[in-house]
Amino acid sequence: MKTMLSLLVLLTTVAFTPIISDNGYEIGDIATDFKLKNIDGNTVSLSDYKDAKGFIVVFTCNTCPYAVAYEDRIEALNKKYAKKGYPVIAIMPNNVRTKPGDSMEAMQQRAKEKGFTFPYVMDADQSIYPQYGATKTPHVYVLESTAKGPVVQYIGAIDDNYKDATLVKTKYVENAVDALLSGTPVKVTKTKAIGCSIKV
After folding, report:
1. pLDDT, tens digit, 9 for 90 and up, residues 14-59
2. pTM attached to this predicted model
3. Cβ contacts of residue 129 below 8 Å, gap of 6+?
4. Which residues contact 138 (CB under 8 A, 6 or more apart)?
5. Where are the domains of the chain?
6. Rounded to an integer, what distance in angstroms lies between the CA atom of residue 11 and that of residue 33?
7. Of 2.60.290.11, 1.25.40.10, 3.40.30.10, 3.40.630.30, which CATH number belongs to 21-197?
8. Helix or strand run (H / E) with residue 36
């Protein structure tokens, strides 16, 4: 009886354990370009940015409290780095049938309210976030433009304190981009993304 109970507990635990895919980009991989609809009705691709030194690709959304907490910091990243050649491209990866609050209309409204200066595009068929291996909102990928294509140089969180920007000690994305701009190796290339799971 004890063995049966243990087996039942094990099966229940397995059933409710989220499956983490091994798929997705690793550091040094070449990221595939995409063509996604922006909130202004136009499409956005990495190839649109002919003079970009790289990109800060952020998977984010309207409905996740973690993503909302980072909105101002994502905007600050774009204002600081777009002029230096590393623009932010924000991608909303959620299934809008599961999360109606992440519809294109809701994205447009949120961007207007917050004054986003970066493209806010939708992964409508949910084909791009699995290529990257994104699992959370927010989840960041810093890409460096090279002759071979956009190389993944950092994956993970924006910084080390999602609760309070004033208490941040380590700015992972800023440190990565600053290193790339100065031609030095990125010291911390991967961190754990903290946020809501992407909704399918």
Report:
1. 332 233 335 799 999 999 999 999 999 999 999 999 999 999 999 9
2. 0.87
3. 59, 91, 93, 123, 198
4. 58, 59, 60, 64, 66, 67, 70, 74, 157, 158, 193, 195
5. 21-197
6. 40
7. 3.40.30.10
8. strand 36-38
